[in-house]
Amino acid sequence: MILSLRLYPPLKFDDGDEFRQVEVEPGTKADALLDRLEGEGVFRSYGRQYLLVLTADRIIRDDYPLEAGQFVKIILSPDGG
Amino acid sequence: MLGGYAGKILWVDLTERRWLVEPVTEELARAWLGGGGWAAAKVAAMVPAGADPLGPDNILGFFTGPLTGTPAPSSGRHCVAGKSPLTGIWGEASVGGHWGRSLKLAGYDALILTGQASEPVYLWINEAAVEIRPAGSLWGLDTYEIEEAVRARTHPQAQVAAIGPAGEKLSRIAGIFTDGREGRAAARCGLGAIAGAKKVKAVAVSGRKNPALFNRGELLASINTLVPALKEKTRGMSDFGTAGLVIPAEMIGDFPVRNWSLGSWEEGALKISGAALAEKYLTGRFHCWACPIGCGRKIAVTQGRYAGVRGAGPEYETLGLFGGSCLIDDLEVICLANELCNRYGQDTIEVGNLIAFSCEAFEKGIITRADTGGRELKWGDNETFLELIREMGEVRGFGAVLAQGFPGLFKRYGEAARKISMTVKGLSFPAHEPRAYNSLGLGYATANRGACHLEAMSHVFERNLSLQELGVEKPLDRFSSQGKGALVARAQDFMMVYDAAALCKFTLFGGLTPTHLARWISLATGLDCTVEELLRCGERIFNRKRLFNLECGLGRRDDTLPERILEQPRGSGGSADNLPPLEQMLEEYYAVRGWDAEGVPRAETLRRLGLAREGHRAGVDRE
């Protein structure tokens, strides 16, 4: 299935872009997607623990099952109040 | 003698121009700990409920904690407190930097100012002396200028807490600022106006007497096991400061937009984000005392119309309320606006909310050109925005009206103004949206100083944090109301401990737990306190402040939220549809707190916390 990904500053794909479409297996969960992107070096030095993932304006956790056509937003996890 | 403490509270009577020292007892330390706890014990006891906040019966206290000046990470804070000139109820602000540590090194855990000076003065406090000196030639200096001027008269490394022109002119939104150009502020609740009314321009402190510690070796060992992980977990804060919160907050729907009337502002948020600030204007970072995080941003605008701005960069709150709420998407304008507010010594949270209110009020005809000196007020108008900030800081023109804060606006413009003002108990909203986090709505409604996200900090447990000792196994559903009454009460008690220890709450993101705090306080002081005792101390502190507010005439009707937040969804973005079910959460909260249906602590609760006498004084002895 195809997902649309958007990274927010300071995160970027290695070509400098912030948008990308990726193909993943149906039933893929959020943590598997992040593992893959981390392996590709997308998150620079930040690593998984620094990220927040949203889809349909909702924060999703590692065990969330992604669905075809979803728009997934990945940001640096907020610290501070 | 207790470790961690200097062992002395300095009382300065400005009317009689004399001072005395109160020794710190174990009872005071054990029951109230320090910081915001001592503020609750001293201010609430000393200030009559009917006192004029700008009169001689109000006191202005500066309180450090048992970990201030120790190697504990992020222990550079202190608490400032008094009856608020803005709201007329409990007033308190916490501030970082280096001043608190220097007060302790000068030999004092706290400084309490009473009475009123007959002419402008500044205080010079060091290990050898306490002096009240004339400040006529310093009156009028801004908070960046005052540090240099006072150091020239005292000591080159003296730490200076000061008011700017706003406080001198009794602006109800004036704060007390430290660290000069690095701009740390006890900004909220108009406490700067108390200093202005007492004619205290500045307090300079300096010393070298580090507090003795009960068990330095074990304390250091415990701290050193946490600090590496703390630094790693707070990397985002180190890299981007609190400004790093702008993009995620907008995405979650936590970001104020157009006086809290809209739901999204993605394009604008990207222009004023932490990453944008770092890319274009960052020249370095600064740290509070003993802080491994270093969230402070040093910025410089070197080109263009606003070249010359240099020093502390805008924090998340300022970016949210100047940027999103006023629709200013020019980062250089916000940097200048931030510097102006720092120099004048005024609260950027109140300033941002007041200007956003003014734009909407002008649109609706509540405010007209007759009020604004002939100006039209428009969203995103950079020059009018900056001019209003100057007027507010100088307390002139329409700025003088705004400098009275929202309570003043309600008196002047009535119910129409109240309907579009985002305040609780007269204090305006920080840049966090109660429609984004249900527990935040309850936290705002019940916080003792008014709309405050820091008295509970519960929303972080609805975002990305868990804390088993508070019963939060994993981050909670922010749109659920289940259990939020209990969550907010527990979180408030824990945050009261943080404020009493005078520790920075950003350590929460680094993995600090109640167990760490209990251990560090025990090792520093020798008090041997458990987590349960600490949380009960926090509960005591929270209830004491509540009693003060009840004496000031507050009740359940004041534990509420603005109509816009309760009835109007944001309409778009990450929190488009949610409205916090306040009444339901409040009922649970009162029950958990051991309060009756009117929000009054029951007699049994007060007895359990050792507050029976205070409850009797407040006239709230109820079974």
Describe what this molecule looks like in 3D.
The complex is a heterodimer of chains A (81) and B (623). By secondary structure, chain A is of the alpha+beta class. Chain A has one helix and five strands. Chain A has a five-stranded mixed β-sheet, with no helix packed on it. In chain A, β3 and β4 (58-60) form a beta hairpin. The longest helix of chain A has 10 residues, at 30-39. The N and C termini of chain A lie far apart (37 Å). Chain B is an alpha+beta fold. Chain B is 41% helix and 12% strand. Chain B has a six-stranded mixed β-sheet with strand order 2-1-6-3-4-5. In chain B, β7 (121-125) and β8 (130-134) form a beta hairpin. In chain B, α1 (26-32) packs across α2, α12 (316-324) crosses α13 and α12 runs parallel beside α14 (348-363). The longest helix of chain B is centred in the last third of the chain and has 21 residues, at 531-551. Chain B starts with 7 loop residues before the first strand and ends in a 6-residue tail after the last helix. The mean pLDDT of chain B is 96. The interface between A and B is medium-sized, with 20 and 41 residues.
